[in-house]
Amino acid sequence: MILESFGLEKYMDELIDSTNYQLRVMRYEKPKTKDSTHALAAHCDNNTMTLLYQNEVNGLQIQSKDGEWINMKPSPNSFIVLIGESLSVWLNGRLPSPSHRVMMKGNEDRYSLGLFTRPRGGYVIKVPNELVDDNNPILFKPHDHEEFLKFYYSEITQAAVKPGGYISRLKAYCSV
Q1: Please, are residues 45 and 52 in contact by the beta-carbon 8 Å criterion?
Q2: What is the CB neighbour count within 10 angstroms for residue 79?
Q3: Could you give the strand order of the β-sheet that contains 19-28, starting from the edge strand earlier in sequence?
Q4: CB-CB contact of 152 with 62 (8 Å)
Q5: How many CA atoms lie within 13 A of 40 on its CB side?
Q6: What are the CA-CA distances from residue 26 to residues 6, 31, 41, 66 (Å)?
Q7: How many beta carbons lie within 10 A of that of residue 54, not counting itself?
């Protein structure tokens, strides 16, 4: 649907063929305090896309453009779709990857099921020519996601993250 909305259907097979999938069950233990606590620090997913399904215990928060944290309260039979930074880069920044976190409060564990899609090693993420023109200059250099992950997990990059803050290492890595 995303590719269709940008008129990029011809890239569908390429993206499907270049994608790995990981299904993960996540458990966030109930807080040992009555105060709201961080269960997962603020971040943007560096993958292509994430589909989340959670139990009835809320906790996911999405950061708005003005910096406010918004509590997500999905209906029991819905999925949450998060655009990853890799797709944001592929789309030349046209869809942002939302910063999100998990804040826990209460007496119950939180469970969620995540389907993570990520580019396969060797696939070069490159902005399609259709998304570049005089009004929309290219924002990102082509890059291999596997090479980016080496950079992402390097000691130098880890040291660059400020406590309590989030920086987009992918955008730092491949911005023009």
Answers
A1: no
A2: 13
A3: 19-28, 110-119, 49-54, 80-83
A4: no
A5: 19
A6: 33, 15, 14, 29
A7: 22
In angstroms, the CA 96 to CA 3 distance is 15
Please name each of the domains of the chain with its CATH number. Answer: 2-174 (2.60.120.330)
pLDDT (tens, 9 = 90+) of the chain, 176 residues, equals 999 999 999 999 999 999 999 999 999 998 887 778 888 888 889 899 999 999 888 899 999 989 999 999 888 889 999 999 999 999 999 999 999 999 988 888 999 999 999 999 889 999 999 999 999 999 999 999 888 888 877 755 555 555 445 567 787 888 88
For residue 99, give the DSSP letter.
Answer: P
Is residue 52 helix, strand or coil?
Answer: strand
H or E segment and range at residue 21: strand 19-28
Give the 3-state secondary structure of residue 102: strand
- 13 DSSP 8-state letter: H
Neighbours of 61 (CB within 10 A): 19
